[in-house]
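**User:**
Everyone, produce one record:

**Assistant:**
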Amino acid sequence: MHKTLRLLPSLDFLRGFEASGRLLSFTRAAAELHLTQSALSRQVAAIEEALGIPLFERRHRALRLTDEGAAFHREITAHLQGIARAAESAGSARRAPGLTVTTTVSFASLWLIPRLPRFRATHPDVEVYVSADDRNVDLSRGEVDVAIRYVSRETKLPSDAVPMFGERMLPVVSPAVARDPRTPLKRPADLSKHVLLHLDDPEGRVPWLNWPAWLAANGEPGLKPAGSLRFTVYDQVVQAAVGGQGVALGRLPLIAELLREGRLVAPFSKRYDSERGYVALTAPHAGAREDVAAFVRWLDAEAAGVRGEPGIAPAATALRAPGARSARRAPRR
């Protein structure tokens, strides 16, 4: 083996360095790679020791690449992408046709997965792999083909983004709880007799999805409920509401099917529209693939059906990027 090859850092260490330089955070890079922050820091320190140069400037709550580190990062990123392309090419001949779609845990479980049989019925040869993760995956890395993102109106979207629908919120509860004459639900003030189901959000990432904001917007800022339950992901909130454990803030269209089936009911009409909505994005490497284009066209058609239902969700025109298209009218590439 050539001497230079023997001196190469571990590939895992280089992946850790690439993620740290891209995110400029050991903590976020460690979470992406499913490592501890201390383990990732040791990996980067080992590379620095082997090279004999500092790659990062470690500041208080901040991380910055040195000039040498930035140059090394550009080279490493390019070579790791080349390795990924080589592996993709080598394995593609033996792998069944398929695509990977990433989206949030709640969107996957409540909206996407229940609809997938309809796509499979018309495209039985396309395997769909759902990667549910509340973190945004970098589409340029080649790990996923389509992303369904939950974005704000201020988000800058690429021209080929396909807006799906906005989001509307209203209180929902199981029919049994709604019918209980001891705890009527006729107006917002009646929520004081009920347990409220919360999405736990200690970092304030989704302030529009909390009961205090809804109560303040509907004239009950000081309301004290009979109790509270907190959950780490939204679909747990929904399951608790279906099970009669309390009142949840329902997100349309995610819970629209549960309302149609009568497993949840909306006891009063107070609702509000979120400043956010859902869009479908195609990864740069997947833009020419017909299976990916077919999947995005199917997503657009499913979303059009949702947008056409009165009272379910507002149209996502506020999320449309300049030049954004409808997937069904897109030319094949």
User: Anything to note?
Assistant: The two ends are 44 Å apart (CA to CA). The chain is about 40% helix and 20% strand.
